[in-house]
Amino acid sequence: MAVIEVNNISKSFGDTRAVDNVSFEIPKGRIFGLLGPNGAGKTTAIRIINHILIADSGTVTINGYPVSPKTQSMIGYMPEERGLYKKMKVGEQLIYLAQLKGLSHEEAKKKIRYWLDRFEASAWFDKKIGELSKGMSQKIQFIATIAHNPDIYIFDEPFSGLDPINSEMLKEIVIELRDNGSTILFSTHRMEQVEQMCDDICLFNNGKAVLNGNLREIKQRYGKNTINIEFEGDDAFLDELQEVRINNRSANYAEIRVLNGQSMQDILKKAMNHAQIYKFERVEPSLTEIFISTVGEDNINPKELS
Amino acid sequence: MSLRQILLVLKREYMTRIRSKAFILATILIPLGMVAFVGIVIGISVWDSDTQQTIGIADQTEVLYPRLEEMAPDRYQNLSDLTQDSLRTLVQQEEIDGFIVLDESHIGGERDPEFISSGSGGLKLQNTLRTDLREVIRNERLARANVSEDVQKIYESDISLTTTKLTETGKETEDDTGFLTIVGIIMGAIIFGAISGYGGLITRSVIEEKTNRIIEVIASSVKPIELLFGKLAGIGALALTQMTFWVASLLGLAAAAGPLAGLFLSEQMSNMPQASQTAQASQGIDPEIFSIPAIETSLIIYFAIFFILGYLIYASIFAAIGSAVDSEADTQQYMFPVMVPIFVAYFIMFQTMNNPDGTLSVIGSLIPFCTPIVMITRIAITDVPFWQISLSILLMIGTFIGTMWLSAKVYSVGILSYGKNTNWKELMKWIRQG
Fold first, then answer.
1. Which of A69, A83, A87 lies nearest to residue B2, judging by beta carbons?
2. CA dist B43 to A49, B36, B48, B196, Å?
3. The pairing of beta strand B55-59 with beta strand B98-102
4. What is the CATH number of the domain that holds A243?
5. Per-residue pLDDT at A248
6. Which domain holds residue A267?
7. Interchain pair B220, A86: CB under 8 A
8. Per the domain annotation, does A273 fall within a domain?
9. Alpha helices in B146-223 (DSSP H)
10. Which candidate, B317, B343, B321, B344, places its Cα nearest to that of B331?
11. Which of A57, A148, B165, B259 has its CA at a distance of 20 to 30 angstroms from the CA of residue A41?
């Protein structure tokens, strides 16, 4: 049975349809990536799943229950905009937040102590949030999300604003949580993180879910229609290529999506005439490429994808 | 709605604030500040009345000046030998504040005395002069009329008014209107101050959760309406704590002040020279004179009711304002229309002081947005018909339900919207959406 089931939800704000008839389901024990450019409707969908917003139509069930205050406590949610009460002490604040999720004071205190120990942050128990560094408060934020021991975790843009150390730590913990049987939903507009972590994905664009399913299957479906090329020399030849789309281009690297049966051998020849080739590889397309080819080049602003 | 969640929010709002240094300081400093303010006002008026004007008297009757001199030797200066021209010069040079030429026709009552001045002194001086002249001329005429001593005594008798209030039960009580007016004004002013002060605190608290960005974490655990109720109740409890502390210390001070003042004064008496002591001794000093009249318990209960209801009505509005904006600077456009009725009520209150049963006061006390301030002042001063009190309470409860309903809608949308430049049109949309 799916842990999170989203059926045909829509939500409008005034004239804008933020989420437009979206459905997907997340099986137990998987990492599910919700991706798409900024403003695609990811956060609105997540807020509906968290019962912060109510969908205009459609249903969401968590472990079989329609969303309600009861399902809220099954979820550990870290919003994109993170924040804590600056004037409250770390311990007090974490206990308060865990109590709001249904834990008793005693339970909450025990759990908070455990997690603070684990993050080597026990000494901060009586410190005010305002006194902590940014990296420290990111850890506290993370403890606030997981302390009530939910079996579903939802992270909205979890890596934005994280320093590299915390970013790596979060990645490890997310994978560890999944391996312990928890279900994780996270949203991001950074495709490479999705490729590294996700089992399943759902692509959002303009409020609609344009692509949905198992990441590996989706990639296989596209076949090895992409060339990764590394070279040294004049890169002007890339501009002369016809019937291709070039993503991720830099001075000595390019990801070339081959369109309309254009011969890869011809591209290799052309490249050899102009530059020193270090690597020429046929691969499955990157998620960025999949996204662009799904929604069409004209329908997105490529700058929103990085 | 879950009571557990509301109580958790309430407890947090209350506990984090009551321990804060700012709250403790404010609780101690605000009354001290008020005492200092009243002290300064009294100080200014005392210091002010000390300024002495000098009035030149050109007395052609030779009998009126000695009488004036007897009354107020510092105020009147005998300038009878000077001409009118030199008197005018003295006024222009500001040697004297003004002068009056008195002659027989004034004693006869054929003409009114004329006061020529540089214009300083104001109404108070004119009043004083009028009273003084009336008295000396009357006394002179009495003396000339050669009336018996009995008649003269009649004129000398000074009447002061003692007042007694007849209550509905027919019992005659000492009338404390003067004292109760002050109590009423203080209570009205406290409610006025508390509504604006705590209203501001609510707005800031909502904005703080928005700018801290913790609101979304909270919203994933608590319904907006639970958060709103918890917040109003928590800060309301804080307000009540502060009030209770202030009222208790005020009553404590008042209870201690009476006997202390009596003690202090009777000690002074005993240090006085023997002669005057014997004169005073027969009267004795009764400490009771200095104790304040009792404030009825019902008045304190009404104060609590109107304070709580007034707080709730305005706090719900202030919370909605906080949720609609991103920073405190943006609150202006919404604060103004909310503050208008509070200030109108405050001004009506001073009208109520003079005429507690006037049309303006009655209407003001029944308009829910003005009730808390105007009604409590009326109740303190006069016997307000019970139907008016009950009606005003019912109207306030109804208004609170209305403002809370609207506020909850604005709040639940507002807390999650950032960066939008909200305006009234947008708010209307939220209310329809919510």
1. A69
2. 66, 10, 8, 28
3. parallel
4. 3.30.70
5. 78
6. 224-283
7. no
8. yes
9. 149-156, 177-211, 215-219
10. B321
11. A148
Q: Beta-carbon neighbour count of residue A85 at 10 Å? A: 21
Residue A207 lies in a domain: yes
Provide the number of structural domains found in chain A: 2
Is the CB of A18 inside 8 Å of chain B's CB atoms? no
B216 shares contact with chain A (CB less than 8 Å): yes
Residues B215-274 have pLDDT tens digits of 889 988 999 999 999 999 999 999 999 888 887 887 777 677 666 666 665 655 555 444
Q: Which of A12, A38, A81, A132 to mutate to test the interface with B (most CBs of B within 10 A)?
A: A81
Residue where a domain stops, chosen among A195, A219, A243: A219
Reference A287, options A204, A230, A206, A208; nearest CA is A204
The mean pLDDT value for A81-96 works out to: 90
Q: What domains can you pick out in chain B, each with its CATH number?
A: 55-152 (3.40.190.10), 176-265+295-433 (no CATH)
B214 interfaces chain A, CB cutoff of 8 Å: yes
Task: State the pTM of this model.
Answer: 0.74
- Shared domain for A61 and A201, answered yes or no, is yes
- Count of CB contacts below 8 A, A vs B? 57
Asked if residue A236 and residue A154 are part of one domain, the reply reads no
| 8 A C-beta contact, residue A245 and residue A294 | no
What pLDDT shows up at residue A306? 44
Determine the pLDDT at residue B278: 43
Query: What strands, in cross-sheet order, belong to the sheet with A31-35?
Result: A75-78, A152-156, A183-188, A31-35, A200-205, A208-214
What is the structure's pLDDT at B277? 44
Indicate whether A189 and A252 sit together in one domain.
Answer: no
Indicate whether A205 and A103 sit together in one domain: yes
* Residue of B158, B118, B140, B124 lying closest to B59 (CA atoms): B140
**CA–CA separation, A245 vs B222, rounded Å?**
48
Same domain, A88 and A137: yes
pLDDT at B268: 54
ipTM of the complex: 0.78
Residue A79 and residue B213: Cβ atoms within 8 Å? yes
Same domain flag for A15 and A105: yes
Predicted local confidence at residue B264, as pLDDT = 60
Higher pLDDT, B95 or B42: B95
Mean pLDDT for the stretch of residues A4-13: 92
pLDDT value at position B63?
Answer: 83
- Pairing of β A65-66 and β A226-233: unpaired
- Spatial strand order in the sheet of B115-117: B76-78, B55-59, B98-102, B115-117
Q: Among all chains, which residue has been given the structure tokens 């969401």? A: A60
Report which of residues B410 and B73 the model is more confident about: B410
Q: Tens digit of pLDDT for each residue in B292-327? A: 566 778 888 999 999 999 999 999 999 999 998 888
